[in-house]
Write a structure and sequence with these properties.
mainly beta; seven-stranded antiparallel beta sheet; 46 strands
Length: about 725
């Protein structure tokens, strides 16, 4: 390519002409020096390979360092004036950052795909679109709406017409007895974890084994240790005269759900095969991922019995359980595929190990998608393992999951590169582009019998930090994102095939925004431009108030009134050093924050674990009642809310750090440390729960049993 380019330049010089350069102002005049030599070009002009156009692949997402640079060179922006709070407590002004182009409105469509051929055509168009950076396939009838179950997916009849009414053990809602369940986002909607309890027994996943203990304080007894019926991990490498072959099969047990006397264990498998033929110079690679669920009958804790198994293609993203129904979400990619072979581009579900292609009319597609991946969602009877229903969404890969008793919301954030306009300037074809994060949303409706239906889709600007950035109340979906818009322009000389880029001297500042969408996933209200040059670190919705923390050097805690979906209002913004990475309601009018801080408020890096308690009784005047810097530098609870035990009624806050397992209570005088228990080093999978007066701390290798009346470690049990 370089030789060809040099030859073209020589011919141009011999002909008495030179490559054109794009104008720098509205006059159309060319700048000096010429960009024939890239080294002599102005910094804002970067000559690329002839004919190259920007795509999401060659326009990288901003790094943390880039975000800092963007913040130091931020542009001035207009002021926005949200509706004020009470007259004596005016709401702080909100600065509006430069916005991205409006996203496409959400809504419903008529049906899923009519055939596998339509799906193949859509994937083909996605691949073409991804390579060319513009143009989308629109010739199929995929979309959102009500889907009739076809003969290929008649699963709803596998369970009774009514879902079990009792709440699931192990999460959110617990029985009247005094014990803690999994720390979940939505009360009554259980989340998977590696430790579960029903108040009588403790269930622990350790690698590929399940250990069951009868919880009785100092007299706690191991009931059984069961090797899970999962494939063994292995790999092989074979060298021959003509080349080599490598194959592998890996199994990863992820988490479990507990419902009455049934335990559902989720695990994933990853199979790959690669080879190289030296004679032909040919390399080949294949990979397949699958998520499966094992259902064990726990009626006899001494001998759990496997009763059924279900599965679906793709790696495990998340799961929830409500009303005796287990919902599993996976991500399935399409790589080496053949147009007339649906098995190469359509995901399977598995019942009893038998694969079944998902029916075409159970597959829908996100509009304007440029990703050939599926989100696969299934529902199963948690007590018997019979699969009930499934949906697949083409055009989304990784996704965060929010679920309440009525709906599942899936949010997939991706870096996009969009052509805003095209026009002619002098001899150049000029294209203006927008780059930034967009979050695609899918709402899936839930029926009492476990049936699921993809109902609507939408989009919002920015990216989310996880499941806590989403919430639904009274039919309105609320979401908080960080927006990092970026714009640039290309100048194409069609005659000579040169493409030059112009980037702004200053990047637009990042900011956060809150969006409210209706049941059709149409945006009905928003509040944007908050936390300029900062990133969202934590979010918690509590009734009609949204609390979220942004951070660059200080920690603004925003309180937003979302009672009126069409007009969310900023009520207060409290700025303090450090940041909170997890927020948890702590009784009436209090909000607990767990994050990082430092002794020096001017220090730019935060090196100590921090506990904060906020007074949110008056959202227009939020204050920090107490802050405590721990002599610890990390806690797994910063990244996994299942790793923290919070119970405001028992006034109990417990989590592992690099100094041990720490227990606190909160008083009018602030945080009071109850104890620090030496657990011989923390691990990412440390969990804790209480039953009665006993605290059980489960680490990678041991279970510590603590009497909470005196914080005496009465016993240590080695996990096998």
């Amino acid at each position: 390519m370089k030789k060809l380019l040099c030859a073209v330049l020589v011919l141009m010089l011999l002909a008495g002409c030179a490559p054109r350069v794009p104008p720098v102002d509205d006059t159309g005049e060319s700048p000096e020096p010429s960009v024939t030599d890239n080294a002599a070009a102005p910094e804002e002009l970067r000559q690329e390979t002839p004919g190259e156009t920007p795509t999401a692949e060659n326009t990288p997402a901003p790094t943390d360092a880039a975000k800092e640079d963007a913040g130091s060179e931020s542009e001035s922006s207009e002021d926005r004036n949200p509706s004020p709070g009470p007259a004596d407590t005016p709401a702080p002004a909100v600065t509006a950052a430069p916005s991205a182009p409006p996203v496409q409105a959400g809504g419903e469509a008529d049906m899923g795909f009519e055939s596998y051929g339509d799906i193949a055509a859509a994937i083909d168009a996605i691949n073409l679109s991804s390579n060319s950076s513009y143009g989308y396939y629109s010739g199929f009838r995929g979309g959102f709406g009500d889907f009739a179950v076809t003969n290929d997916m008649e699963m709803a009849d596998a369970v009774a017409e009514e879902a079990p009414a009792s709440a699931s053990f192990g999460g959110g809602v617990k029985a009247e007895s005094d014990w803690s369940g999994t720390n979940v986002q939505v009360a009554g909607v259980d989340e998977g974890d590696i430790v579960k309890t029903d108040g009588k027994y403790i269930y622990i996943l350790k690698g590929t084994t399940l250990e069951i203990y009868r919880a009785a304080g100092s007299d706690t007894l191991r009931m059984s240790r069961t090797e899970l019926e999962v494939p063994e991990s292995n790999d092989s490498y074979l060298k021959s005269d003509s080349g080599w072959t490598s194959e592998g099969h890996y199994c990863n047990v992820r988490e479990m759900f507990l419902y009455e006397n049934t335990l559902a264990v989720v695990y994933g498998t990853d199979e790959y095969s690669e080879s190289y033929d030296e004679n032909e110079g040919k390399y080949s690679y294949s990979n397949s991922q699958r998520t499966e669920v094992l259902y064990y009958d726990l009626s006899v804790p001494e001998a759990p019995q496997l009763i059924s198994k279900t599965g679906q293609d793709g790696y495990y993203l998340s799961g929830r359980m409500y009303g005796g129904i287990l919902y599993i979400v996976t991500s399935h990619g399409v790589y080496d595929w053949v147009f007339d072979d649906p098995g190469s581009f359509v995901p399977n579900i598995y019942r009893g190990g038998t694969p079944e292609l998902i029916a075409a009319d159970r597959i829908i597609m996100l509009p304007d998608s440029d990703e050939s991946r599926y989100l696969v969602v299934t529902s199963s009877d948690a007590s018997g393992g019979e699969m009930i229903s499934c949906e697949a969404v083409l055009g989304a890969g990784n996704a965060d999951m929010y679920m309440n008793e009525d709906c599942i919301y899936l949010a997939s954030s991706e870096w996009v590169n969009e052509e805003l306009s095209i026009y002619t300037e002098s001899v150049y074809t000029v294209r203006d582009y927008f780059s930034g994060y967009r979050t695609s949303l899918v709402r899936i409706g839930l029926e009492e019998d476990g049936s699921i239906t993809a109902e609507a889709n939408g989009k919002v600007d920015g990216r989310i930090i996880g499941q806590f950035a989403m919430d639904e109340r009274d039919g309105y979906f609320r979401i908080v994102t960080t927006n990092e818009p970026y714009r640039y322009t290309t100048y194409t000389d069609e005659e000579y095939g040169f493409v030059n880029y112009r980037y702004p001297e200053e990047r637009s500042p990042s900011s956060s925004g809150l969006y409210i969408l209706d049941k059709d996933m149409e945006i009905v209200g928003s509040l944007t431009g908050l936390g300029e040059n900062e990133t969202v670190y934590s979010v918690r919705f509590s009734g009609d108030t949204a609390y979220f923390v942004t951070y660059r050097q200080t920690d603004p805690l925003f309180a937003v009134d979302v009672s009126d979906p069409g007009e969310p209002r900023l009520m207060s913004a409290l700025k303090i050093p450090g940041f909170s990475e997890y927020l948890h309601p702590y009784g009436e009018g209090l909000l607990l924050g767990l994050g990082m801080g430092s002794e020096d408020p001017e220090q730019t890096w935060q090196d100590r674990v921090k506990l904060s308690m906020f007074d949110v009784s008056d959202p227009y005047d939020v204050s920090e009642l107490s802050v405590l810097l721990l002599d610890a530098y990390y806690t797994p609870a910063l990244n996994d809310h299942h790793a923290i035990l919070v119970d405001s009624e028992k006034n109990l806050i417990g989590f592992a750090t690099d100094t041990g397992y720490e227990v606190y209570r909160y008083t009018d005088s602030g945080f009071v440390r109850q104890t620090v228990i030496d657990i011989e080093g923390y691990t990412w999978d440390t969990r804790s729960l209480y039953i009665g007066d006993w605290l059980y701390i489960i680490t990678e290798n041991k279970m510590f049993i603590v009497y909470m009346n005196s914080w005496w470690v009465s016993r240590e049990i080695a996990l096998m």
